[in-house]
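To close the chapter, one final illustration. This time we ask the reader to focus less on the individual chains and more on the assembly as a whole: which components sit near each other, and how the overall shape emerges from the parts.
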Amino acid sequence: MKLASIKKRLPSGRHWILSGPYLWLLVFFFLPFVFVAKISVAEAALAIPPYSDMFDWLDGVLNIRLSFANYQWVLDDPLYLYAYWNSIRMAFWSTLLCLMLGFPMAYAIAKAPKSIQPVLLLLVLLPSWTSFLIRVYAWMGILKNNGLINGVLMWLGVIDDPIQMINTNFAVYIGIVYAYLPFMVLPLYANLVKHDQSLLEAASDLGAGKLTQLLRITLPLSINGIVAGSMLVFIPVVGEYVIPELLGGTQTIMIGKVLWQEFFNNRDWPVASALAMIMVIILIVPITLFHRFQNKEIKP
Amino acid sequence: MSKHSRAQDEVLLSIKNISKQFGEMTAVDDVSLEIRKGEIFALLGASGSGKSTLLRILAGFDTPSSGKILIGNDDITLLPPNERPFNMMFQSYALFPHMSVEKNIAFGLKQDKMPKDQIADRVSEMLRLVHMEKFARRKPHLLSGGQRQRVALARSLAKHPKLLLLDEPMGALDKKLRTEMQLEVVDIIERVGVTCVMVTHDQEEAMTMADRIAIMDEGFIQQLGSPVDVYESPINRMVAEFIGSVNIFNSEIIEDEEHYMTLRSADLDGDIYVGRGVSSGIDERQMLFALRPEKTFLSIDKPEQSHNFTAGIVDDIAYLGGHTVYYVKLKTGKIIQCFLANTERRAERPNFDQPVYVFWQDDAGMVMRS
Amino acid sequence: MTGARFSFSKFVFWLGITFLYLPMIILIIFSFNESRLVTVWGGFSGKWYVELFQDQQIMSAVLRSLELAFYASTAAVILGTMAAVVLVRFTRFRTRTLFSGMITAPLVMPDVIIGLSMLLLFVAMSQYLGWPQTRGMMTIWIAHTTLCMAYATVVITSRLTEMDRSLEEAALDLGASQLKAFMQITLPIIAPAVVSAWLLSFTISLDDVVIASFVTGPGATTLPIEVFSSVRLGVTPKINALATLIILTVSSVAVGSWFLTRRLNTRLSLQLAQK
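The assembled structure is written out below.
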């Protein structure tokens, strides 16, 4: 006896709960991208809002105005292409730096006695809860020409003229690592803490030294954490705006900054949208990768 | 077995052709059962046998792929768990950690919108039933395992359900406590008079507590009967081996008459003589002969009977205090078990590598087809 | 590993901690510097704090941001709890991947993209639906709720998966409806996660400058926007004072609530430990 009537049994409460957040996200997260796509194929105009209408009636005939000029404009210009390339490049190196600094840190916490692990974790995460803006700002005061480091070095007589640290790529790297380090440590720690200590003991029993244990056992088992942490740093850094704006110089061309300038300074919404679409396309693969790893955490 | 073998034969619950598939896998395969009012019924099986799935279907947490569950004439197959007149005691007890013992027990009554004073009365009644009056205000994490079990039991009985479901009731207790609680829980259930279906993998538990046992394997019921039936008259090898220990011999029918039959086994010296026949067909020559270890006798001298005996050598001895298990190696190399109760404190017993004779009575063993 | 004389990882750990905290400590110290210059110590002074509190623009921005963060976190947590329930309890439904994708994407999506896209949505909505008329606190609230909801969902989901499912089933078995079982049993048990999700959302909302810049309107300057526009022009001691206050407030709230959650958690895990 088939129970197709099972479907009637679904309490309506189930659908109600499902729809709330789902609808919200569909409207306020997913739908906006449709509009970005739409505007990216419009033309800039002296209007409010500053783009041309996609549809308009002319003599009773519906015209659809679609222009890929923006994309052409972006892809033809070596400056924009450089911006993308530079953003990816800088994001890559910052992620690597975060990883090199963050892995030993996460490892140290995971190996600490159980009772103080939460304290150590709190210590690492606390800065990330205070204002991101403030913390980047703090570095301005330290790195600028009449800032702390230069002041101390000159006072010590080590240098005569201030070293240009602010408004350089160097400052941007420091800023990024400073801001994003906790985001690397957390997933690494979450992974490392689940490692079975007895695996290392078994390896040791079989003759493996500390380094071998690390490379052959710990590292391979922490791949999930490494990928999650790396994605959590890499993806947002590609589109980062605040740090290059405050700490970077005119030669620090990152796509987030370029987008902002196109939008706010040039009032060129269509180009900004095209830039955004291209950024999303570039980031689709890492985002999907991140999503896959997140899901692994939800369903172990 | 409960004192209650007065089995009122009134049927409380009918399970008709219940099947459950998970994708390709069939967890429950066309199971039909009738649960009698007032009995304690056990679903016994190993993990993966389908018993837990069946229990969950009864409770309403899973819906069957096909089949019906009826109480009287009411089809409750599709009823959600909160509308069924059943209550379940979970394996992990599932006591609400943020509520006291009192509040835990009262929870179900509150859902029924029972008046406050009645709830209070019922809760005290339950606390008295399980001897937990002193712990009314405590939170579960401050109770021992046995105490938590009592609270869980009280909570599941508070609503006077038509059917009590127990999911591995003794699973979370240590061995000593287990035996004690088995009898106590049965006592409580009988005092309340509720019908009970329990699920367990522990055959001792099922034998101790249940009036009737259904042995499940691979999703269907292998055998259904009282503990005595299931132990002394297993219908197949699986059931025979699942409960207690058993020696099984491959044998061939020599004679099969109405009142007796003889079989021959390569492992045994003498022929097997059984006091009743099994009406085998012409093609059925191969049978299994099952002999429980406690039904055997050991002697150094050859016994007088001409059948139901064999010679062997004591291969291993396990002294278990109350009885001793002798592992006897037969001429074919097969090793069988023989239990001997240690009725005398220090008696003359066979020793390692000693040649012995094993023998048994005519009605001691069972013949099975598979 | 007993008696490690020199542990590389421990060394790097404390190096990292120093790296993380030093700039903040420097900031705090110099907020009390009489002199404007970072290179000169002019003596201990609280005058920048006085100037800060007299700055009406900044003060009203603070209140605005606090209010906004409150409403955004509350909405984010409510939606996040619902989303977590869906993700954990309903394992099979069509387009689940889309749903979970929309939940995790905001966690990594660059702010400029979120900001731009939401602004274009609001503009289009205003064109076709007439609402929102003007952008401002309402639109920022919507944007923040959307962003914070992702974080809230992640936090609550992890706690929900840890919870023993049989507790909910027991409640159902005893006659509670699905909703009652959730409110009376599940919610109290995941409460610590809900609280930390709320706090996390609060800090995220309070801190956001990029998205708010995109979707804001006249008269709705949030604190981060104020600070950012001020800071682009250079280091100012008033901002140092503000920064110090923010750091100290957030730290005390974070540490305080962390202790509270730990206490709640240890109590609950004792209660839950059925072994």
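Chain B has a mean pLDDT of 90. Chain B has eight helices and 20 strands. With these observations in hand, you are ready for the problems at the end of the chapter.
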